[in-house]
Design brief:
With 78 residues, this protein is mainly alpha-helical. Helix content is 65%, strand content 0%. It has three helices and no strands.
Length: 78
């Protein structure tokens, strides 16, 4: 496990401490979770961009043509 020293504004530190108490976890756990969520989001965005880059509009349109034209189920209607 690594240690990282980070300088944050007092106001953010206070909010972090309050949230950790409210959630019943340590500040360290809350920070680790927040970083994990952000890293996951960034990795997902990179993955989706790469998938989009490899995509082919012609193939996509051909696949859409194979889908029958029908009304959506009631639970899928807006």
């Amino acid at each position: 496990m690594s240690t990282l020293s980070v300088r944050i504004p007092e106001s953010l530190h206070k909010q972090l401490k309050e949230m950790a108490v409210k959630e019943g976890v340590s500040m360290n756990q809350l920070i680790t979770l927040a970083i994990s969520e952000k890293v996951s989001i960034l990795l997902t965005v990179d993955y989706l961009k790469e998938r989009a880059r490899r995509g082919d509009r012609k193939t996509f349109d051909e696949l859409l043509e194979k889908i029958p034209d029908s009304e959506p189920e009631d639970y899928d209607k807006l």
